[in-house]
Structures are given as C-alpha cells and as structure tokens.
Design goal:
Layout (H helix, E strand, L loop, with lengths): L1 H16 L2 H30 L3 H11 L2 H15 L4 H29 L8 H40 L3 H29 L11 H24 L3 H5 L3 H34 L1
Helix pairs in contact: 1-10, 2-4, 2-5, 2-10, 3-6, 4-10, 5-6, 5-10, 6-7, 7-8, 8-10
Length: about 270
C-alpha cells in the first residue's frame, strides 16, 4: 500500500517536471490534424467493405461528447458524397504523415519520462513513428469496429458449428472486453517501441492498463459533463464542437503520457534494485 502511495506521489511530481500538460496539448493538436484524413480513409474503406457507417457512428457516440459527435457526423456525411478510390490513397498518405507527427510527440514525451535523449537517426525515428502509426490505425480501427460488428461476426462464425444462441449472447458480452484488450495491446506496443530505450513488452503492462481504464473512464465522464453541465456552444459559438474535440484529445494525450510515465517510474525502480 505504501508503495502505491509513493508511486502516486512520484507520478504527480513527474506530471509537472516532464510538462505532461504541455506535451498532451501537442498531442491534441496532432490528433486533430490527423482526424479528418483518417475519417476519409475509414469512411472510404467502409464503403468498399459494405459496412453500414451508421453503426460505427453509433459506437463512436458512446465515447465522444455529443457536440463532438455532431461535428464528426457532419464531416462523415460530406465525405460519403465524394467517395472514390482516389480518396482512399489520399487518406492513407494524409493520415500517415499527420498522425506520425503525433507519434513523434509521444516519442519525445516518453524519452523525457525515461530521461533519455533521442539519438536515433531522423529517418529511423520517422520510420518507427510511421510503423507505430500504422499499427495504431489498424488496431484502433479493429477496436472501433469489433463492438459494432461483433454480432454479425459472432453469428457468422457460430453458424458453421451449430452453436446455440447462448454462445452468441456470450459473444455479445465479450466483444466489448475484446475491444478493450485490443486497445491495451496497441498501447503496450506503443509504450515499448516509442522511447529511445530497450523496454520489454512485459514491462509495459501496468502503464497500458492504467491508460486503457483511465481513457474509457475519462471519455465517459467528459461525455456526461458535456451532455448535462457544459455549455461550450454558448461560450464558443460555432467552434464549440471543435473546442470539445480538442479537450477530449487533450485528456486522451494526458492519459497516454501518464501511462508511459508510470512505466518509466517502475523501470527506474527495477534498475535501481539490480
């Protein structure tokens, strides 16, 4: 218990020392920059796969604040009117370029957490950022689609072996857990690869768990606040949706960086005990 309290105090101290707030603001900017190119790619891909985008948006609405969801919906509707193969390639290029800058910001934040300088060549660091970006896009895309499409997938799989409806009901419950596990896996991968230090995947589990649970909790609480107590439109007018989206991304950035900071604290303690 004392160790948990000590770790919590150290984590709070690192919040100010490593400028977690400032780094999270950078992440929020790059997340916003990469959002709409990613939407172009995702919506176009859904068109090729014949997936109903309304079901995906219904899942997004579970976590996204209402005014932010409205902003995303408007842009998705606009993109659907201009669906073509060329947009898909543009979406990939735009997403990789913009989102890799966001991963670069994460890499800098984690280097600061582990108290190391970035010594990797620029091209190597950029390649790592792009690989991490692709991994994040793919895995987060799966985490997004699985809860929405889980029923259809479950029915399709179980029909081959003649399982009863009770197994499909079990799938309905497990698919939400699976999406969280996928999010946990991509965070573990990010925490291990991003810093300029050799980190074992097994040593990233605690931080990834913290970030996974905290992100879901923060997203739901922030959505509740915006729905019931916040009045961003009254203050910011037509920019209210964008401001809410930026705050949501900012909170997401804090959650991700704190997970990395926690892993760094645990790593330093293990090294000191050797």
């Amino acid at each position: 218990m004392n160790e948990i309290i000590t770790t919590g105090k150290e984590l709070i101290g690192r919040f100010g020392k490593d400028d977690v707030s400032g780094m999270a603001a950078q992440l929020a900017y790059f997340f916003l920059l990469s959002l709409f190119p990613f939407m172009i790619f995702l919506v176009t891909l859904l068109g090729y796969l014949h997936i109903d985008e309304e079901r995906v948006l219904a899942f997004v609405s579970t976590y996204a604040p209402p005014e932010t969801f409205d902003l995303i919906t408007e842009n998705v509707s606009s993109l659907l009117k201009n669906e073509n193969g060329g947009i898909l390639s543009i979406g990939i290029i735009g997403t990789l370029w913009a989102a890799s800058n966001g991963v670069n910001a994460i890499m800098r934040a984690f280097n600061r957490a582990y108290e190391v300088e970035e010594s990797r060549p620029f091209l190597v660091a950029r390649l790592i950022a792009i690989v991490l970006t692709v991994a994040m896009v793919v895995v987060i895309g799966i985490a997004l689609l699985l809860p929405v499409l889980g029923h259809s997938i479950g029915v399709y799989l179980f029909s081959f072996v003649g399982l009863s409806d009770s197994f499909i009901a079990m799938w309905e419950a497990l698919r939400w857990v699976i999406s969280s596990i996928i999010f946990f896996i991509v965070l573990s991968f990010l925490f291990a690869m991003a810093p300029n230090k050799r980190i074992k995947y097994t040593n990233t589990a605690i931080g990834a768990l913290l970030s996974t649970v905290a992100w879901q909790g923060v997203s739901l609480l922030f959505s509740f606040y915006v729905s019931n107590m916040g009045n961003f439109s009254g203050t910011y007018g037509s920019l209210g949706g964008v401001i809410i989206l930026m705050i949501w991304f900012y909170l997401t950035g804090i959650v991700i960086i704190l997970g990395g900071e926690l892993n760094a604290i645990i790593y330093r303690r293990r090294m000191a005990q050797r």
